[in-house]
Specification:
CATH superfamily: Nucleotide cyclase, GGDEF domain
Number of strands: 10
Shape: globular
Distance between the termini: 24 Å
Radius of gyration: 20 Å
Largest sheet: 8 strands, mixed
Length: 289
C-alpha cells in the first residue's frame, strides 16, 4: 500500500506531499518544537491530518484512576456507563461495513485471583479494571463495544487516508499499560492484593454492524467480521503485559511508531492464520514503545 504519511488532505481530496511541502513541514516542525512545551514527536502531523491524535495528560489520568479505584474499594463507588456512544454509533450504521481498528484487552490470571481474594473484592477489582480501560478508550476517540468476562473490546473507526485512528489505538493501549502499572496496582498493593497484568491485541479491517431484532431502539447491536476474530486471536497469544498488533495495523502507523514494533518470528506453529489479501501467514508485531 502507499505510504500514507506522504499524503495529506485539504478537505477537497488527498494530494501527494511535494518536496517543497516537505521542506516547509520541516521548518514548521522546527518552529513548533521551539515554541511549545508539549513533548510530542508527531505534533506537526496533528496539523496535517484530518483527525489529530488526542494529547492526554498521563499524570492527571493516573491520579483520577487512583481516586476512582480507591473509592470503589473503600466506599463501593459505581462507575457511569461507557457504552452509550458506541450504541448510538452502531444503531446509526446498522448493516454497514466499516473500516476500524479493533482492540481486545484481557486481564491475566483472574482465575488465580479468585483463590486469593474475597468474592466481593474480586468483583470490584475486575469491574474497576474494565471501566478504567473503557475510560482510556474513550479518551482517545475510541468506542467501547462491550465487556466479556474480564476482557474489554473497543474499536477506532477509520476513514480513507485517516491514519489518526491507528496512532490513537497505539497511544490508547500505551496509556492502558500506564494506568494499570502506575494507577491501579499501587492502590491494590496497599491492600496486599496481587498486581493486575493485561494482554492486548489489535487488528484492522472491515466489520459489519448487525442488529438482532426489528426494534431499532432496543434490539441488541454488535459487530461481526474477520477483524473481530483475528484481534481476539492475536490477544490470546500475547504474553502478560504485552501489546501485539497485526500487519494491517502496522502498515498504517506513523513511521516513528513503526520503529518501536518488532516482527515476531514463530519458532513452532503458535500462529497459523493467513492474510486475507495475500494468503501468506499473517504477520504479527510486538510493540515495544
Amino acid at each position: 500500500m502507499p505510504n500514507l504519511w506522504d499524503r495529506f488532505s485539504f478537505g477537497l481530496g488527498d494530494f501527494p506531499l511535494t518536496d517543497d511541502l516537505k521542506k516547509n513541514r520541516k521548518k514548521l516542525e522546527s518552529k513548533v518544537q521551539k515554541s511549545t512545551k508539549i513533548k510530542s514527536p508527531d505534533l506537526v502531523d496533528l496539523l496535517l491530518r484530518k483527525n489529530g491524535q488526542r494529547i492526554v495528560d498521563s499524570e492527571t489520568l493516573i491520579k483520577e484512576t487512583q481516586k476512582r479505584v480507591w473509592a470503589a474499594l473503600k466506599k463501593g463507588y459505581e462507575y457511569a456507563g461507557n457504552f452509550e456512544n458506541s450504541d448510538r454509533f452502531l444503531r446509526h450504521n446498522v448493516f454497514s461495513r466499516i473500516d476500524m481498528f479493533v482492540l481486545y484487552v484481557d486481564l491475566v490470571g483472574s482465575t488465580a485471583m479468585t483463590l486469593e481474594l474475597p468474592e466481593e473484592k474480586l468483583a470490584i477489582i475486575i469491574s474497576s479494571f474494565a471501566q478504567e480501560m473503557a475510560s482510556v478508550i474513550k479518551l482517545y476517540n475510541g468506542y467501547v463495544l462491550k465487556f466479556v468476562g474480564d476482557a474489554v473490546i473497543g474499536y477506532f473507526v477509520s476513514e480513507e487516508y485517516s491514519i489518526g485512528a491507528a496512532d490513537n489505538a497505539i497511544y490508547c493501549v500505551k496509556s492502558m499499560m500506564k494506568v494499570i502499572d502506575k494507577g491501579i496496582n499501587p492502590i491494590l498493593n496497599q491492600y496486599d492484593y496481587p498486581d493486575l497484568r493485561i494482554k492486548i491485541g489489535i487488528d484492522f479491517g472491515k466489520s459489519i454492524v448487525v442488529r438482532y431484532g426489528a426494534d431499532k431502539e432496543k434490539s441488541h447491536v454488535d459487530l461481526m467480521g474477520p477483524v473481530m476474530n483475528i484481534a481476539a486471536k492475536i490477544q490470546s497469544i500475547a504474553k502478560p503485559n504485552q501489546i501485539l498488533i497485526g500487519d494491517d495495523v502496522f502498515t498504517r502507523l506513523h513511521p516513528s511508531i513503526q520503529k518501536n514494533c518488532e516482527l515476531i518470528k514463530w519458532e513452532k506453529n503458535e500462529w497459523g492464520y493467513r492474510s486475507r489479501k495475500s494468503g501468506k501467514i499473517y504477520q504479527v508485531f510486538k510493540y515495544r514503545g
